[in-house]
Amino acid sequence: MLQGKRTFLRPLAPDDIPIYQKWYNDQEVNYWANGAWPLSTMFNEEEIEERFFTPEKDNGRYIILNEEHKPIGTTGFRDINYPARSAVLFIIIGEKDFWGRGYGTDALKVLLDYLFFQWNFNRLSLDLWDGNFRAQKAYEKLGFKTEGRLRQARFVLGEYHDAILMGLLRDEYTQLPKY
Hints:
The protein is α+β, with helices and mostly antiparallel strands and 179 residues long. It has one domain: Gcn5-related N-acetyltransferase (GNAT) (Aminopeptidase), CATH 3.40.630. 30% of the residues lie in helices and 34% in strands. It has an eight-stranded mixed beta sheet with strand order 1-2-3-4-5-6-8-7, with helices on both faces.
């Protein structure tokens, strides 16, 4: 288990399927995480298990726990490019009581430390939709820089929005003052 100041990260377990189903089928969680609602389908437990919990789907996905070890979200990485030592990150705080309180920033810092210093990644990236200002502020606090925009790449509640692409290099991360 990986530990931050306020959060812990642990690998997925089969007992997490019901909480994943709750988060992935929650309109407000999906709105902020992906700008995506309605979903094309509401996932049942079997679909959640097939999508995230089968061995071939093990793509660096972790459960975020709070100080009391209660699951509050998920984070991880995908699209690994081994020669370039890079990957794409994602994070969702599924428990709304923990939004805007620094848990996502702390969990992402734990993941950044792990990937830069244990996995020896050189570059980590992520993307978000241009209406998610809270996430963008948290990413900037951790040193991510805006690298580009995909114009009208997201369709949110009947309107097109840009996707913002952000990246962080290990050298930049190690130069940041620790919060």
